[in-house]
Amino acid sequence: MIEKQKNYDSKQVKQVLITGATSGIGNALFKQFSAQGDAVIACGRNQTELDKLSHLAAQTCRFDITDKQQVKDIAEQIQTLDMLILNAGNCRYIDDAKQFDGELFNDVINTNLVSVGWLLQYLLPKVKKGGQVVIVSSSATLMPFPRSEAYGASKAGLDYLANSLRLDLKKENIAVTLVHPGFIKTPLTDKNDFNMPFLLTSDEAASRIIDAVKKGKKYAHFPKRLTLLLKLFSYLPDCIWQKIVIKEQH
């Protein structure tokens, strides 16, 4: 379901669509883009939360990103976009690798990766020449972590997708920015039962993403205290970094 809220002069403001706009990073992005005068289309599954954004949104769209038909129906009601921000996702863990949970794995891969294919199929054609696509992945792809078989695999797929897509969209003059957030305080991370070093707020994460987009960066990662540390760890011998990671996750 899509609800039109405001009329904008498309020549004066950017048309920005954000998935997962009702909470966490997506919600912070929505508020900051709206505050700077952009026409933001807020997308999510929770109508109650979308209603709270309606006074600021150009449009609100309620749909399930994993439902191909719903994505198609919504896209048919959207004219053009300057920016497509693919942020919605889920995080669930494999608690017992020996008794591998295939249903959980399927759900996470479908939500975080497969759904992006449908979003790109139906929404990418709406992005103007000179526009931007922003794909929010995770710094978890910088090295493997315990219990993250599903989440990490889905985000690693997003990394490759974004980097490959950038090559093919160059001729269309559409930029692609890949984002690697570290630990961000959101309803999802509130469920974590392990140490989360250098935790940032959603507002801090959104500010960094918007800054990267304005500068036309291909890659944004933050906080650098964490991401650079993870990259350094990945060059250490396996016996060293594995010991560090396992200790931090327990």
UniProtKB/TrEMBL annotation:
Signal peptide: none
SUPFAM superfamilies: NAD(P)-binding Rossmann-fold domains
Keywords: Oxidoreductase
Source superkingdom: Bacteria
Pfam families: adh_short
Similarity remark: Belongs to the short-chain dehydrogenases/reductases (SDR) family.
Protein name: SDR family NAD(P)-dependent oxidoreductase
UniProt source species: Psychromonas aquatilis
Species classification: Bacteria, Pseudomonadati, Pseudomonadota, Gammaproteobacteria, Alteromonadales
